[in-house]
Specification:
The complex is a heterodimer of chains A (118) and B (115). Chain A is an all-beta fold and 118 residues long. Chain A is 0% helix and 52% strand. The N and C termini of chain A lie far apart (41 Å). Chain B has 115 residues and is an all-beta fold. In chain B, 0% of the residues lie in helices and 50% in strands. In chain B, strands 2, 4, 5, 6, 9, 10 and 11 form a seven-stranded mixed sheet that branches. Chain B is globular. Classes of the chains: A mainly beta (118), B mainly beta (115). The A-B interface holds A 9, 33, 35, 42-45, 47, 50, 52, 91, 93, 95, 97-99, 101-111 and B 31, 33, 35, 40-45, 48, 50, 56, 58, 88, 90, 92, 94, 96-98, 101-104, 106, 108-109, 111.
């Protein structure tokens, strides 16, 4: 079974600085999807960025980018020019590209709480 | 677009009571799922469905029941509420496993307290 590990329960960053959140995963599959979701105090789950495993190029979305290391099974999120609105819980998640039974389920890490200091 | 709509957003129950959390989506998604979120535990899958009439258990199914009579609706039933079911519940949906980017779209969550 696949697992997702976020080793940093809490992180802190100064406004306008850069922070990197870590995520590792364990799988025997070669094709899958990886996601970072943001959960602000409003509780809403918001997709931040998505990476397809078959793509070597790292995904970017404005100030958010990932460092995807497939061989190392690592998927870190970098937030540049941090803003107060970036303060939230961040979840890393894995989803198989397979089509059978439970393979479509999203598997989450336990989350990293990010604080942004003004 | 309404997206994924969950009701109620807040609920307080007494031990032993039953209730249903409603979930509806208007995106014609085949896949729907229920997660619970507890502090320090991330989101854990309760039940999921890959289409109308098809449901299956996730990681933590005990004490919960689901059905999928239509593509749009996926209610979660608590049969006899226990304090251990105090949690925040999320419904989420996506396109089926053969198309789309596999992104899950989430409802706003339902906070349930069992006394």
């Amino acid at each position: 079974a696949q697992t997702v590990t976020q080793s940093q329960p809490e992180m802190s960053v100064q406004e306008a600085e850069t922070v990197t959140l870590s995520c590792t995963y364990d799988t025997s599959e070669s094709d899958y999807y990886l996601f970072w979701y943001k959960q602000p105090p409003s509780r809403q789950m918001i997709l931040v960025i998505r990476q397809e495993a078959y793509k070597q190029q790292n995904a970017t979305e404005n100030r958010f980018s990932v460092n995807f290391q497939k061989a190392a099974k690592s998927f870190s999120l970098k937030i540049s020019d941090s803003q107060l609105g970036d303060a939230a819980m961040y979840f890393c998640a894995y989803r198989s590209a397979g089509s059978g039974g439970s393979q479509g389920n999203l598997i989450f890490g336990k989350g990293t709480k990010l604080s942004v200091k003004p | 677009n309404a997206g994924v709509t969950q009701t109620p957003k807040f609920q307080v129950l007494k031990t032993g009571q039953s209730m249903t959390l409603q979930c509806a989506q208007d995106m014609n998604h085949e896949y729907m799922s229920w997660y619970r979120q507890d502090p320090g535990m991330g989101l854990r899958l309760i039940h999921y469905s890959v289409g109308a009439g098809i449901t299956d258990q996730g990681e933590v199914p005990n004490g919960y029941n689901v059905s999928r009579s239509t593509t749009e609706d996926f209610p979660l039933r608590l049969l006899s509420a226990a304090p251990s079911q105090t949690s925040v519940y999320f419904c989420a949906s996506s396109f089926d496993l053969f198309k789309g980017s596999r992104e899950l779209f989430f409802g706003e969550g339902s906070r349930l307290t069992v006394l």
